[in-house]
Amino acid sequence: GENVEQHPSTLSVQEGDSAVIKCTYSDSASNYFPWYKQELGKRPQLIIDIRSNVGEKKDQRIAVTLNKTAKHFSLHITETQPEDSAVYFCAASTGWLTGGGNKLTFGTGTQLKVEL
Amino acid sequence: DADVTQTPRNRITKTGKRIMLECSQTKGHDRMYWYRQDPGLGLRLIYYSFDVKDINKGEISDGYSVSRQAQAKFSLSLESAIPNQTALYFCATSDHGGEEQFFGPGTRLTVL
Asked: Which of A9, A36, A43 to mutate to test the interface with B (most CBs of B within 10 A)?
């Protein structure tokens, strides 16, 4: 089955700096890669996703890049703010366009702390 | 608002007890999932269901069972709870053809 590794497990940045979280996956058939944000005591929520037919996607201060050859993808947050402090999870799925559903395999999470 | 709800939100039980966690959704989604979250281990899939007649094991199904009573309801049971099942449990839903999963608020389960 799929295995998703995520690094680093903790990340501390100064407000205004950029943060990068990296994930690798093992199944070359994976074609959908979402990122979820979980604030303290809250439920995980999707913040951005990317499909295997593109290499990069941006949404305001966040972006995700995908390298299918190397089987890794990354989350980039620019101009970090205190409200970006949370746990971020990457995930991978083979379900996009294949009718295989969207059974996700999650990484182990990154605790991001944005310091004032 | 259409939402995903879980009951109970917190539960403390003893080893050997049977316990059921319930999930309901008003989103009209046909796909439902149960995950457990442990510190440092992320979210791990226990069971998933793509419709009322479809139940599938996830990566850590041992010691758990599920029931899909209706499109809107998906229950997780621990037949004989053990301490290493202490965790935060999340239910999630997604629409057929859609990838985003919508999570419930979670149930914190402690097995003594």
From this structure: A43
Among A26, A33, A104, pick the best mutation site for testing chain B contact (most B Cβ within 10 A).
A104
Model confidence pLDDT, tens digit, residues B23-71: 999 999 999 999 999 988 899 999 999 889 999 999 999 999 999 999 9
Please judge whether A106 and B43 are an interchain contact, meaning their C-beta atoms are less than 8 angstroms apart: yes
DSSP-derived 3-state class of residue B58:
coil
Q: Do B101 and A107 touch (CB under 8 A)?
A: no
Would an 8 Å CB–CB cutoff place B97 in contact with chain A?
A: no
Among B42, B59, B104, whose Cβ lies nearest the Cβ of A89? Answer: B42
The neighbouring-strand residues paired with A23 are A6, A73
A contacts of B44 (beta carbons < 8 Å) = 106
For residue B80, what are the contacts with CB-CB under 8 A and spacing of at least 6? B16, B17, B18, B63
Q: What is the pLDDT of residue A96?
A: 62
pLDDT digits (tens, 9 = 90+) for A40-88: 999 999 999 999 888 999 999 999 999 999 999 999 999 999 999 999 9
The contacts of residue A45 (CB under 8 Å, 6+ apart) are: A36, A37, A38, B103
**What is the per-residue pLDDT for B1?**
62
Q: Does the beta-carbon distance from A34 to B104 stay under 8 Å?
A: no
Angstrom distances, CA of residue B26 to CA of A88, A113, B6, B95: 26, 34, 12, 12
